[in-house]
Design brief:
Blueprint: E1 9-11, E2 14-20, E3 25-28, H1 38-42, E4 47-50, E5 54-58, E6 62-68, E7 75-80, E8 87-96, E9 99-103, E10 111-119, E11 122-134, E12 147-153, E13 156-157, E14 162-164, E15 169-171, E16 177-180, E17 188-191, E18 197-198, E19 201-202, E20 205-206, E21 209-211, E22 220-221, E23 224-228, E24 233-239, H2 250-270, E25 275-280, H3 297-304, E26 311-312, H4 327-330, H5 332-337, E27 343-347, E28 350-354, E29 358-360, E30 375-377, H6 381-392, E31 401-404, E32 414-415, E33 421-422, H7 430-436, E34 443-447, E35 454-459, E36 462-466, E37 495-502, E38 505-512, E39 522-525, H8 533-536, H9 542-549, E40 560-564, E41 573-578, E42 581-582, E43 586-591, H10 593-605, E44 618-626, E45 634-639, E46 645-650
Parallel strand pairs: 5-11, 12-22, 12-23, 24-25, 25-26, 28-31, 31-34, 34-36
Antiparallel strand pairs: 1-2, 2-3, 4-6, 6-9, 7-8, 7-10, 8-9, 10-11, 12-13, 12-16, 14-15, 14-17, 17-21, 18-23, 19-20, 24-37, 27-28, 29-30, 32-33, 35-36, 37-38, 39-40, 40-44, 41-42, 41-45, 43-44, 45-46
Helix pairs in contact: 9-10
Length: 661
């Protein structure tokens, strides 16, 4: 909910607002405070009311809240925030200085409720919260089992829930009870949230995990409460490579461009009750600036919390502590702030797996010294073993599997001499990973890291979607004084994925920040694309610009048109007609000219050497046609895998500038 739309209620001079973080929503203590006057509140003598965001309740148990001015016998009315026909009454049974107590009514169940005081003919809305009905059960110890617990919902144990400590994997019995012989290496026990359930969120982060002590001899009970919902139909928004570091105007760009765009998308799909979730794909921060700019993972959390839906996080190579030259120790800050570095969960009929495929080396790192920040692309054997155990718990092999990891499985595709796409593994033990998933009929891998878009389907059952970056080119092109656009190294606009799930049916697309969802390609009139220092780096020279411009430095009069289709995959079709006649469309590998002028040229212009990792990449989602003349109008039609059609009537000549769309 937008800050300006929150409604507040003042009780005895205390402003209160209840946040139902468990559902990723905010509820004020009054739906319409225009009807409640301060004097009306004050006449009841109620002050100091404090309503927690979540209240755990035992069946028929007592509920203790803070507040003054209450009287034994006052009525407490609870009305569901989602279904006002569901309501309960209870009486205040005890009052002390600063507290009041009432009993959970018979038939009460887990839900979000508005809480009101009724005294005679007066009713006062006190606030709103999530009441969570819990089990109150002591579980007996079993020899060798160091972690035990209950998984329940609405006061009832849930059978068949997968529970793990990152090494051992088990499932709950018919009573919702689990045991683990944990050595507590990861410091967590976590559940794979079942489909059609959610957990409570903290700062938008789903609390599917509990922290463990380091004492391997201590037997610990860790219970998990589930909230029953329907998410058979849901939307997942993968967001790769944020790189928030308090530099390059990144905070302003995030707050003013990225955040409104993503929240508008969330609100669009949530409007009909569809559940929406964010899935980050790593590099939310930038390890090189953790200490220089005093911006670490803890500083990322407030920005994650501004999103209007729960956020599942994933560690990237820039989310490691650069003071540690050891993968496990360098992950400790991530664990401290965000939780496990690998885990799984279910939404509806879809099983999601989050993996850490970075082996952080950070040669030379030590406390007070940032190391080389080098790393390998690799899944640890411990993770592979855990992955196989997690997958073994899924008996229905037609279950769609969505695996999220930071580094790609496959390299950026290339084209052979015949124009066919060729694919090579990027992940060191990629074959082992692929083999682990061979029994499943529908597997999708979501990755980031490269700040480009591409799709690979080397296996019949598995498709990788490398997704463009939220920060585009590390926030450079939108930085003050630069191009004023937001563009990745392959010419893709900075953006994110939109995955629409309905049962086992999955559909996906790429959403460009600042554009409509139908914006799926960009066309260039190559007759007008001439990149010179005079035009795009006036403070520099053609010689300094030459390493970056390639053939765009030479005027082109061949009447060619270049089309960048960033979401392209093999089922897509690109058709171009001129005066009703089909033109020959050739897939090609080249560099996107808009990115060259938006990053490379502008860095050269200020006397800087463009960072190797940031310069324009060759990409194979480009298509070229030759028109009959320089001023004909071309009709471009792109059809995606799901039959959606995107078009442009390209009037030529078409100008080339930073705002080319």
């Amino acid at each position: 909910m937008d800050q300006s739309r929150r409604k507040f209620i003042k009780i005895g001079g205390l402003t209160t607002i209840a946040s139902l973080s468990g559902m990723g929503l905010l509820f004020s203590s009054c739906e319409n405070d225009d009807d409640i006057k301060f004097d009306d509140l004050n006449k009841l003598g109620i002050t100091g009311v404090s309503i927690p965001t979540v209240i755990n309740v035992v069946k028929n148990g007592n509920i203790l809240l803070d507040g003054n001015g209450f009287i034994v016998g006052d009525q407490i009315e609870l009305i569901s925030t989602t279904d006002p026909s569901i309501k309960f009454l209870s009486s205040i049974t005890a009052v002390t200085q600063g507290t009041f107590t009432f009993t959970a009514p018979e038939g009460f169940s887990t839900s979000k409720f508005n809480i009101s005081l009724i005294r005679g003919s007066d009713t006062l809305l006190l606030g709103a919260t999530l009441f969570n009905l819990i089990l109150n059960t002591n579980i007996p110890d079993i020899s060798g089992m160091t972690v035990k617990g209950l998984v329940y919902s609405d006061g009832k144990g849930i059978a068949g829930v997968v529970v793990s400590d990152g090494i051992e994997v088990t499932t709950t019995n018919e009573d919702g009870i689990y045991y683990l012989p944990s050595v507590k290496k990861t410091g967590f026990v976590f559940i794979s949230i079942p489909g059609n359930y959610e957990v409570i969120n903290t700062n938008n982060s789903p609390q599917f995990f509990k922290r463990l002590s380091k004492d391997v001899n201590l037997i610990e009970q860790k219970d998990f409460s589930l909230i029953s919902i329907n998410n058979n139909k849901h939307v997942v928004i993968p967001m790769a490579d944020w790189h928030l570091a308090n530099r390059n105007n990144d905070i302003d760009q995030f707050n003013n461009s990225v955040l409104p765009d993503v929240n508008a998308t969330i609100n669009k799909y949530a409007a009909d009750g569809t559940k929406v979730y964010i899935l980050t794909l790593g590099d939310m921060t930038w390890d090189a600036y953790w200490y220089d700019n005093n911006f670490t993972l803890s500083d990322y959390v407030p920005y994650m919390s501004k999103l209007n839906s729960p956020v599942f996080n994933l560690i990237g190579n820039h989310d490691y502590d650069p003071y540690y030259a050891n993968d496990f120790e360098a992950e400790n800050k991530y664990r401290e702030v965000l939780g496990p570095t690998y885990y799984s969960f279910n939404l509806g009929d879809v099983h999601y797996i989050v993996l850490d495929d970075i082996e952080y080396l950070n040669t030379g790192g030590s406390i007070g010294t940032i190391g080389d920040r080098n790393y390998n692309y690799n899944l640890s054997q411990e993770q592979i073993t855990w992955l196989n155990k997690d997958l073994a718990a899924i008996t229905d092999k037609s279950t769609p599997i969505v695996v999220a990891m930071h580094s790609p499985l496959y390299r950026t595709p290339k084209l052979d001499a015949s124009g066919n796409q060729t694919d090579q593994l990027y992940l060191t033990n990629g074959n082992t990973f692929v083999n682990s998933l061979k029994d499943f009929t529908k597997v999708h891998v979501l990755s980031g890291h490269l700040h480009v878009n591409y799709r690979v389907q080397q296996e019949t059952n598995l498709m990788e979607h490398n997704i463009g970056a939220i920060c585009a080119t590390w926030w450079w092109t939108g930085r003050n004084g630069y191009a004023g656009n937001h563009i990745c190294k392959d010419g893709s606009p900075g953006g994110y994925g939109i995955w629409k799930m309905d049962g086992k049916n999955l559909k996906w697309s790429y959403k460009s920040i600042g554009f409509d969802e139908n914006y799926q390609f960009r066309s260039y009139d190559l007759n007008k694309v001439h990149i010179t220092a005079a035009n795009f780096a006036p403070n520099s020279t053609n010689a300094a610009l030459a390493p970056y411009t390639e053939n765009y430095a030479t005027p082109n009069s061949g009447n060619q048109v270049l089309i960048n289709v960033w979401g392209y995959e093999k089922e897509w079709k690109v058709v171009v007609t001129e005066n009703g006649n089909n033109l020959n469309v050739i897939r090609t590998t080249a560099k996107d000219p808009l990115h060259i002028i938006s990053y490379d040229a502008l860095r050269v212009n200020v006397g800087a050497t463009p960072t190797d990792a940031f310069v324009t990449d060759n990409t194979s989602h480009l298509f070229k046609v030759s028109a009959s003349g320089p001023a004909t109008t071309l009709e471009i039609k792109v059809t995606d895998s799901f039959g959606n059609i995107f078009t442009e009537s390209m009037v030529r000549p078409k100008a080339f500038s930073y705002s080319t769309i």
